Every structure is written in C-alpha cells, then in structure tokens.
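Note to self: the last two entries modelled the partners one at a time, which told us nothing about the interface. This time every component goes in together.
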Amino acid sequence: YQRRVRGSYIALHSQIHSSCFQNIYLAGKSITEKAVNRIVNGDTILIFKKSQLILHILLEAKAQNKEFKVVVVDSRPDLSGVSSCERLTAAGIPCSYVYINSSTYIMKKVTKVMLAADALLANGYVLGPVGTAMMGLIANTYNKPVIVCCETYKFCERVQTDSILYNELADPDSMLKTLNAEESPVAGWRESPNTRLVNLVYDTTPPALVSIVITEIAELPCSSAPVVLRRGAVKM
Amino acid sequence: VVSTQSTASFKNHEMDPFLLKKIPKDTVSRLEEFALYLRESKKERRSYVSVVKTVNVFRDLICTADWVTARELIKIIKCYCKYLPLSQSNETDVSNVVRRILKIIREENAGPEATNLADGISAFFKSDMKPSNLGRSDLQDNILNSIVELLVELDTSKSNIINMALEHIHSNERILTYGHSNTIRDFLLHGRRARDFEVIVCESGPSLQGHRMAAELSAGGIKTTVIADSAAFAIIHAVNKVIIGTHTIMADGALRAANGVHQLAMAAKYFSVPVIVCAALYKLSPTHLCSYDPDAFNKVIGPENMLNFSNAKLHSKVLISNPDFDYVPSDLIELFITNTGGHAPSYLYRIISELYHPDDYDLDNMCVETVEDEL
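The predicted structure of the combined assembly is written out below.
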C-alpha cells in the first residue's frame, strides 16, 4: 500500500512540474517567438513599467540583432520602469524614459505599444497594472497598434466592466515618497478627516483599445478570451 | 497667426538706443528691473501678480516716455517688448496684458466713433491710427482711465469666476481635478460653502502639485482623495465632472495646461465626462499651435524630480523627457468659465477680436498698423 501511495505522489509531483514547465516557461518562450516576429528594424516600442515577459521579448529581439528603440513609460508610486530601463540599457537597447503624464507628448514618435497583462477576463477586458488602460487609450487615439502579451493560464472566467468593482489597494503611504528631500503636504493625511490617499493596483482595459493578444496557442483578438477558456487550454 | 520665437530679446541685454532716447533714466531702471523679474520668474509665480505688475510698469512707461501721437507711443511699447523675454512660454499672461494695453491705446486714439475692426470688410481699409484731435495730455488721460478699468477687471476676474461655482457644482457630486491651481482651489472652496461634494485630485507628477492642492482643499473642509495620474482612467467613469485650470488658452480654444492634462481630457471624453476649464481672460492668447516642439510650444525642464541624479549611470544612458506643458485640443473641452461668464470653446475667437488688435498678435513685429504701411 505504501509503495502505491509513494508512486502516486511521485506521479503527481512530476505532473505538477511538467504542467508548470509547459504553461509558464514554455508558454513564455512561445509568446516571445511570436512577439519578436512583430518587431521590425526601425521600430520605436513603448512599454509600460516592468514586465518580465515584455523585457524577455525585447532582449530576445536584440539578441536577434534587430534595431529598435524603446520608450519606457513609468508611473508613481512604485516607479518600476527604472529597473526596466536598467535591464534594457545593459543589453545595449537605446531607451527613453517618461512619466505617464508625458505619454501624449512622446506617443507620436512611437510605432508600437507592447503591454503585459495580469489577467484576461472572460468579456475581453485586460487586467493590468494601473495605467495600462490609459496607455491603450492614448495609443488608440494616435493610431498605434497595442499588443498585449499574455499566457493562457492568466485567462480568467470573471467578468468586469470597470476597474473599481474589483481591485486591490496598495500601501497609501508609498504615494508620499518624493524624490527630493521635501515632505509631501499631505504627509499628515491620517490625522486629517478629509484627506484620503488611494493607491490602486490594477485597472481594466476595454477590448476595443487592444489590437491583438499574443498567447502561446495563437495570436488572438481580445474577444476570443471565452473561446480559449472553453477549450480548457490550461490542461493539468 | 503664428507664435514666433525671437531669440534676439535674450541676447540683447542693452535696450534699443531709440528707446533710451525716449524714456527718462529712472523709468529705464524700473523697466530693466521688470525685465529681470520676468527672466528670473519662478515656477510658482502667480500669474495674477505678474499681470498687475505688468500693467503698472506700462502705465509708468506711458506717463513718462516722450511721445506725441499714439503711433509713436505704440512704437515705443513694441520696442520695449522686444527687450522683454516674452517669447518664453511662461510669459503668455504678460504678453496678453500688453496686447490689451495696445488695444486700449488704439481705441482711445480712434475716438468714441471707433469702428470695431472685426465688423465688416470695409473696416479693414479704415486707418484708426490717424493722429487724433486730442493732444497728448488728453489722450494720455483717456488711456490711463481705461487702464484703471483694466486693473479693476483683472482684480475682479477671480471673484467673478468663483462666484459661478454654485451654478456648476451640485450636492454629492464627485469632481476630478488635476494638480494645483489657485483659481480652481478657490472655486471649489467657494462651492463648499453651500454644497457638500467630494473632490478627487490627481497627483500631477513629477512635480506632485496635486498633494499641495489636496492639503489646501481638505483644510477648507472638502473631502479629498489623492490618486496617482495613472489611475485617472480607472476612476473617471465614476466622476461627475472634471474641473481644471490652465496656464494659457490658445486662440482656437485649445489649452496649454500642466503636463498630463491631455490624457486626462482624453479619458474624460471616452466616458463622456464633461471637462470644464476655469481661467481668467488674461490667459487667452491669440496664438495657435504650429509645432509640438519644445522651442515653439512646450518647455522641457530638468528630470531631477523623475529620476534621482544619484542614479547617474542611468541618467547618462537614457533619454529622459520632462515636458512642462501639455497641449489639449479644443474638442476635448466642454466649457470655459471665465470672468465674463461661461463660453463654449468655439466662441473664443469672438472674444479675441474684442480684446486684441490683429496687428498686436505678434508682439515681435514692429509694425504699428498694416493698413497704412501697405497703402
């Protein structure tokens, strides 16, 4: 009996391991291949903050000797775009860095926008770090293609039409961090009954603002999300 | 109408000898002081303060300079304008007030039966720079009286705007605003006296002026929420209206506003949330956007608020852009609330034709009047 238990334990363990390998690691590689094909010489690609997958795509494109520039759009309070810049410059990719406020200023010179998703909802909305929806809107207004890269394990049966219904709040005190030594005027916000700081984590991008979603099984429009879910693409 | 860039006024630290001939020495020192004040203007300089200063300086100039006809006076003023750093994008309020003063001079010279140049083609061929019947002292008195009226208008412009707060703010509304504006702060505080509503303030990075605005609003008793600029799209569908201030209003109803207002207005348009701009008419400039380049329209400032200089390795490799202003096209704006009331963006051209004379749109142009020069 104990031998059978141990045997099934080993089988389960190897099944989990291979599923992880397939759905996360290999999926990432497949998406990278497809996305790198979309990058051409002379491109200026806009990315938003930091995403392992998008950085992997850009580094792979550089390794294939494609000539392109990257614009990194960053936003407060976490400013993760700085580490994106560091990784890109280390690989020798020419970079620009702006805050999200200036995104309309630089959008004219951009050729493609590549965004990462935290989830793809069943009604086609893309859940991403807060600010993703704004990038999608501005890119659409200036007629730039918006490419969302998302593995199929991130597809989700939940539906949502706005960003507030279901969201997360991060530490509000991180919004008080300023780069110069001055203290923010709202530093005493907890004592004041009228002041609140809200630090949203996610926002949802409407499917109309997204041109294409690159997944490991295919390159799809956002509206195909329920089809992928139905197929049971995430097989254990 | 082209917004031109004249670098001559930066390099030329000596006043034109023509000017020095016409103006007594102590006035010259006051004029040089004013030019220095404009050159060294700080970011938090209140536009109302500099506008009043401008009127006083020019009033001084009109009283003490050596002129006989209005034509001579306008030449002197335009010569002085070339000496001022007016082509920096910070100084549009000063240029606008100078244009108002020039319009006053032209009107007083033309006399009480003056034709408004905007009415009718025949008016284009009438010269209103003919030497008037009035001698210098009478003309000067009339001009100074009109300038006093202008000062009263500037003085009351903010109170006229904020008195309209109750017409535009309802109870239990959620209003979104961006960054810091003295006009908007007073507008909202005035509304608070009679209505209970909430305000959401966008931080407006990298300068984080929104924090200052939030502190001032909550000290005034308004429930304020501070959000990051990236969250604007996420919350704007739950907001009733967007009320913002601006640095300049362009001739077609577009704005030169704080960095980040354009994307906010785009998000508002997407969800059909009205965008209301409160600004006094001295911010209305008869210039159009001809190029998005920093030289012609925008101003790029230092990136120390974006990325710490201690990260020198990154600073040396990465191109960091920190534009100060944002261009907001007029189709994204619903309403302008000015000291003369509420106006649609499409009506501003009419106001411009009343406030300014076409020959003054380009202050670098020394021409006093196109009609006679062509004839």
